[in-house]
Design brief:
The protein is mostly beta strands. Strands 16, 17, 18, 19, 20, 21, 22 and 23 form an eight-stranded antiparallel beta sheet that branches. A four-stranded mixed beta sheet has the order 2-7-6-5, with no helix packed on it. The longest helix has 20 residues. It is elongated.
Length: 328
Amino acid sequence: MRKIKNCVVMLILLMVVFMMTGCDSKEPVLKGIGKIVEVQCGAEFNLDDYLNENLKIKDETDDGMKEYKLKDLEYTVKCDDEIYNEETGDVKTDDYGTFDVKLVVKDESGNKATLEFQLFLNPVEVTKGTYTYPDDSAKGKFGVQGYCEIKNTSSQFLKLSDICMQLIDKDGVITYETDMPDFSTEYLSPGNSCYVMDDFAGWNVEFNHEDDIADIIVDFNYSRDKTENDTTLEVGKMEVGSTVERYEATAIVTNPYDKGVDYYMILAGMYDKEGKLIGIMKSYGDTTSLNPKGKGKAVLRWYAESMAIPDKTKDVKGQARVVTYQGE
């Protein structure tokens, strides 16, 4: 008799559990998040909010297929506590790196699903473009200038290396490439930029149509470095002067080091009224010999035949680096 009572109790408990949970035993399906989530260093970012907005959750329940937001279900997020605040979901984005993230979601029936991905905090922000202009030396032909700004948005001191540039036409074909573009700075302190340009394509490659170039690819490497290795020179305010045929800017360049400079490189970004980079100009001379702690004046000119870009320019910012020190 006691066994029968125990069986009845167990049966009742099973019926209660079934009524409460149903027969759903399938874990929810998690989609919408790639293998790598990229975030710019310096930007405000909340990982929980990002997942709630982008994660698509589908769950087959006793009442049919349902869709959920992450906030509607129980979940946990595991990530490096050096950057991730588990209570608020906020991510510290000042330092760069790649971090593993593990998300576990539990549906209303207690079924769990796991999603693993990586969070990449990117320390460099890249702005790039091309400028195509009529070639006065060849009627009906066009030259091109490729340009780029690489900005350090992290809190780390960075060194750039292996800078390469490719121009891609409308058919996806590489029409020009170089691993020796001009660049203004090799080392980037937080917030600083490096300007990159190449105008040899304008001299060596001709195009039949103004829209022949569809894209520009700029590749480079970066790494942490020591501030004592810095070769960046100080560039004063750019003073702009222009005529109908010439657009140029001058600036005082200061050598902050105890060694004399034999030769340096200076480039300047050209920005429109919205603050968008639209071109880069450089000096083709006057960039030699700076005494230790000394100063010099650099003159930069816009050498493309057309004045379309200078006419749109509202601000010019310069960056410079030591190429060789005296005695090297």
